[in-house]
Amino acid sequence: MFRCHCRDCQQLTGSGHSEMVPLALDDFTISDTCKTYEMLGGSGQPTFSGFCPTCGSQITRNSQRMSDRIYVHASSLDDPGKYDPEKSIYQNSAQEWDEAAILKG
Other C-beta atoms within 10 Å of 27: how many? Predict the structure, then answer.
């Protein structure tokens, strides 16, 4: 579990970072269909954001670059209280006003 400070996550969440749970794509299922938004990520390769077709809440992220993984937004978990991030990634992209959220680890 991690906190991502990349510019893509900032723009998609409207905040300074996103809270993510990485899972093996083969182990992941979702009960309803997500709408998907495709964009070019910072790597220059396609990334995909899954969101609720009813309310627009972000649910998942995945990318062509790491096609065996899916990243679930912690706030979309049935019990987000179980989320316990271990580290931050892309700290160099963190906004100055969000630097206190950077986790060491």
Answer: 7
